[in-house]
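Q: Hi! First time asking for a complex rather than a single chain. Here are the components, and I think there are two in total. Is that enough to go on?
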Amino acid sequence: MLSRIEAKAAGSKGPARRLRLTDFDLTLPALGLLVLFFVVPVAILLARSVSEPVPGLGNYAELLGSSTYLRIFANTFLVSGLVTFVSLLIGFPVAWALAVMPSRAASVVFAILLLSMWTNLLARTYAWMVLLQRTGVVNKLLIGLGLIDKPLPLVNNLTGVTIGMTYIMLPFIILPLYGVIRKIDPAILQAAALCGANRWQALVRVLLPLAMPGMAAGALMVFVMSLGYFVTPALLGGTANMMLAELIAQFVQSLVNWGMGGAAALVLLVVTLALYAVQLRFFGTDRMGGR
Amino acid sequence: MKKILVLAAAAATIATAMPATAADLVFSSWGGTTQDAQKIAWAEKFTEKTGINVLQDGPTDYGKLKAMVEAAAVVWDVVDVEGDYAAQAGKNGLLEKLDFSVIDKSKLDPRFVTDYSVGSFYYSFVIGCNKDAVDACPKTWADLFDTEKFPGKRAFYKWSAPGVIEAALLADGVPADKLYPLDLDRAFKKLDTIKPDIIWWSGGAQSQQLLASAEAPFGSLWNGRMTALAQSGINVETSWEQNITAADSLVVPKGAKNKEAAMQFIALATSPQAQADLAKATGYAPINLDSPKLMDEALAKSLPDAQTASQVNADMNYWAENRDAIGERWYAWQAK
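A: Yes, that's all I need. Here is the structure of the assembled complex.
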């Protein structure tokens, strides 16, 4: 591999061209792996959606013609949207604080963020179950403080899913936002103040627009990841809050109806790709992750 | 030197990641305390007797099983599945016929024997209640469906399987001997009346957690889980009134690599002593009719075997025929 890169480097005309070619070459092992273990199996599953139980688009007609399944689609978008919104609301101040914090303090916060990401997803979700249940810490605390009389229903519903998923998604919004906000020259905010902007104006008219690429990249990432989420909604939500990924799992594992499973998976894939296309169109790959 | 170390590490990684060698038997079940008990009561005894190593895998996944058979790359040799699935999968050509010259079926509970499967253990859906959390405990299915007399959340099994639909019909006054064919319209109408008060449990551990924490102070649980809760010191009550039985089955996927060893394994697993040992460890009932003789009396009394007075048997053949249709309707109703 190395000698091939060198050969190419020697034979190429300019530095830009040389870089592009070798870049692509270097992605080949990863691409090969993806094609073999991801693209091919997905293609096979999708092929079954138009061939099982009989050839045709029957599975899609059933999927898109049923009010139950449409409700699951709607719920998937609702939950993803809600999680994205709450993540932004919480993530923005955190990213901002990280950007202006002394670096030692910031590294402590980063360590906490990353540690939570490295902890097993299932363990984290069960932890929320214990915290949020009727006799859980949160309800006991609120009752103890005299704020409520009887336990709030915090799990097995939309509240539980939103809390659990927001917690898991936060790092994915904080990290790109942090990257963008850190690049903003603090002098710009000083300039805004000098020009007479109060703190609110400085935030809304200067900081927010400048941080927009990071917000959009993070929000889209969280939204798209949420669309396909499985474990957390299954454990913290009720069956009335079922999401698309759970439906697919049900088709594949419990009903062993792979035609319908493939059809549902294709719908999810198309939506995800469409959103990704929007992201590319408006923000481009180079602006993702705040680079 | 460094290179050698790296190579050694890589070799070690590959070695540990290697799939079972042909001589090993692979057994898949549902994890948790039940599979631990199966390992001790069955697998370790089997290895002692035959010298064949048994690898534990799981959880059982019907999608995976189908994929293995279709791809002719069957990793599992013996699989613990739900009884209704076993009856259906046998008909759909996903399973090997069992060799009853190796497996002695004369003493096996005939309710759970088909050409393709024998019982693994059997259990009852009972009405469980956390006595510390409520003033009064529901005693019958009708009680459990009565949200006025018994306010609060109730726990029910999430997946489409024998148990909940039967309970709804019994609660609605259908006589036990008139349950089948299931009147699904009536069952779902009855379920509608308590739907907002249901918390679904998807696994045994979760059902115990719901009851113990009083998140749902009562519900329909597997009897073995109630036994375990009582043993752990939680003040629970079990009502066996019209307990609904269902079974797990042992099957061999079509094209299993160690078919002969698989038959021997099933023969041992369903033998009187192995079934008695499993019942002792799990609180589920043995499917070998000779097993109760081998157990002490107190234990035998705590099993579904001793609760046959009002017992209702879920009809596995009906379920096998209608599993897909009921399943689709079940999940659609749940998501509504």
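A: The mean pLDDT of chain A is 85. Let me know if you'd like any chain examined more closely.
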